[in-house]
């Protein structure tokens, strides 16, 4: 099964990988996360969020805030914002401890039950979302370019191509500035040739924008979603969401 997890608690670097940092300096260690399934996804605590930080910069869209990181962005009304403590991550399929390869906190999801399957025939269905978007801290990164490349590739590998890294292609890193004037590094990774062994298998794509937050630490915003499928999120929509990424403090609300 594809190891994508959702946990209500923050998955902190100290207790999981030594590399994954999702919010600010107050992240609390979480118990070992569980594998994704319909039951695991719905058992996470916290109510789904609507706009909880200021007004959207795009009329009719929703504000998504990672308050611990101090970052906000907007998503179209069809997206669902998860609770502020919700964490989505990917891990190696054969890792019994499910140490995250990459993660995002307080994400928004599009069509959370886009595809449902029981690949291992154990009687427990697993839901696959069409797309996810969220933010995280990258305190272990050496540069915004390195963070962007690593995160985008990890999302595509973790969700779509395991165990084959060769099916992931990462583009050239470019400089990007959002509408708020936030500058950083932007890159997109894509997969090709993913074999459709199970009902929900598909190629995927991930776009990561890495930048420096208000505390001077590296942070990133990532979109990850299925590619080459009906309803695929257009690159233009991904770019429009990206353009709204901005630094945020509670006083901004």
From TrEMBL:
Region feature Disordered, mapped onto this chain: 25-56, 116-141
InterPro entries: DUF8017
Signal peptide bounds: 1-18
Keyword presence, Manganese: no
Keywords associated with the record: Signal
Location of the DUF8017 domain: 55-248
Pfam families: DUF8017 (PF26056)
Biased composition (Basic and acidic residues): 116-127
Residue stretches of biased makeup (Low complexity): 33-45
Segments traversing the membrane: none
Name recorded for this polypeptide: DUF8017 domain-containing protein
Organism the protein comes from: Streptomyces mangrovisoli
Organism lineage string: Bacteria, Bacillati, Actinomycetota, Actinomycetes, Kitasatosporales
